[in-house]
Design a protein that fits this description.
This protein is α+β, with helices and mostly antiparallel strands. Helix content is 22%, strand content 35%. The model has no long low-confidence stretch (mean pLDDT 91).
Length: 274
C-alpha cells in the first residue's frame, strides 16, 4: 500500500474527507504512518518528524535495480564475510555520512521524481547528500540475511544502506523487509492497524493527546484560555520552539511560540465558540 492508499482507507473508515498524512511510506514497507483527521490535519505541518527508526532485513550476495527485493537482480556473489568485516562495514555507515539515494526514490530531479524518470527509461544519477545514521545495529545474522535496526534522520534511505553495505563488503546487498517503528515522537505503541480501525474506528490519539506527545505543554487559566481562543497573544512562557497550550479542563487550545516577551499563536485548534 502507498501512503495515499492508507489515506483513502481512513477516509472511508472514519467517514470524513479531511484526512492527511505526514511523510510517505514506501509501498514495500509496513509500520508507522502519521495521519491527521479533521482538526488534527492542522498539526501535520508543525510536527517535528525529522528522526525515524526502522527494523529491516538486508540480504547480502545480490544487488538489484531498486536496492530492494522488488527489483531485478543485477549481480550475485557468494557471501563469505567475517563478523569482523561485517561490523566494520556497518560502522562506516553509522554517524554523519554522505548517501546517494536509490534511483527509484521519490527525490526530485529537475522537478520530476527520480522513480518516474527511471520508469521512463532514463539513467538517473542522484547527488550524494548528508544524512545522520545514529544507530545501525545488527540483531541477528541468518546466513545471507541480516536483521538490523536503524535510527536516522529524515531523508535517509534504508535501501541505500543495504546497497552500500553489500557494496562495501564486495558481495552486493539489497533490502528484503522494512518496518518503520518510529516517526519523531510517535512509535508502534501509538499505532493502530487499519483492521483494528475497521472494527473500532477510535483514533490512536485525540487532539490533546497528540499535542501532548509531540510538543512541550503550557497550561493556562480560564481567562487566558478565552484569549487564546480569540487568537490573542499571551505573555511568553520561556519554552523553546512551538508548544501546546491547554485549558484548565484539559482541552488543547493552540500551538504557540514565544516571540520576545510575548507568545503568538502558530495555529488555533479550538477557536472561541467551538
Amino acid at each position: 500500500m502507498t501512503s495515499h492508499d492508507v489515506v483513502s482507507r481512513l477516509r472511508r473508515i472514519l467517514r470524513t474527507r479531511k484526512v492527511g498524512h505526514a511523510g510517505t511510506l514506501d509501498p514495500m514497507a509496513t509500520g508507522v504512518l502519521v495521519c491527521g483527521v479533521d482538526r488534527g490535519t492542522k498539526l501535520l505541518g508543525h510536527l517535528a518528524l525529522d528522526t525515524k527508526a526502522y527494523a529491516a532485513t538486508i540480504r547480502l550476495g545480490a544487488s538489484t535495480t531498486t536496492d530492494d527485493a522488488e527489483g531485478e537482480v543485477l549481480a550475485e556473489s557468494p557471501v563469505d564475510v567475517s563478523d569482523e568485516a561485517m561490523a566494520a562495514g556497518i560502522a562506516t555507515l553509522t554517524g554523519d555520512i554522505m548517501q546517494v539515494p536509490s534511483s527509484v526514490s521519490a527525490v526530485k530531479i529537475d522537478g520530476q521524481r527520480a522513480y518516474a524518470r527511471v520508469r521512463a527509461g532514463e539513467d538517473v544519477v542522484i547527488p550524494a547528500r548528508p544524512v545522520t545514521v545514529s544507530e545501525f545495529t545488527l540483531l541477528e545474522r541468518r546466513g545471507a540475511d541480516l536483521d538490523v535496526v536503524v535510527s536516522c534522520t529524515s531523508g535517509t534511505y534504508v535501501r541505500a544502506l543495504a546497497r552500500d553495505l553489500g557494496a562495501g563488503l564486495g558481495v552486493g546487498g539489497h533490502l528484503t523487509a522494512l518496518r518503520r517503528t518510529r516517526v519523531g515522537p510517535f512509535d508502534l505503541t501509538h499505532a493502530r492497524t487499519l483492521e483494528q480501525l475497521e472494527a473500532d474506528p477510535a483514533l490512536s490519539l485525540d487532539l490533546a493527546g497528540a499535542v501532548a506527545t509531540a510538543f512541550p505543554r503550557r497550561d493556562v487559566d480560564a481567562s487566558a484560555a478565552v484569549d487564546v481562543g480569540h487568537g490573542k497573544r499571551l505573555a511568553a512562557a520561556g519554552l523553546p520552539g512551538t508548544y501546546g497550550v491547554f485549558a484548565p479542563d484539559g482541552r488543547v487550545l493552540a500551538l504557540m511560540a514565544d516571540a520576545g516577551e510575548l507568545a503568538k499563536p502558530v495555529v488555533v485548534l479550538a477557536p472561541a465558540g467551538s
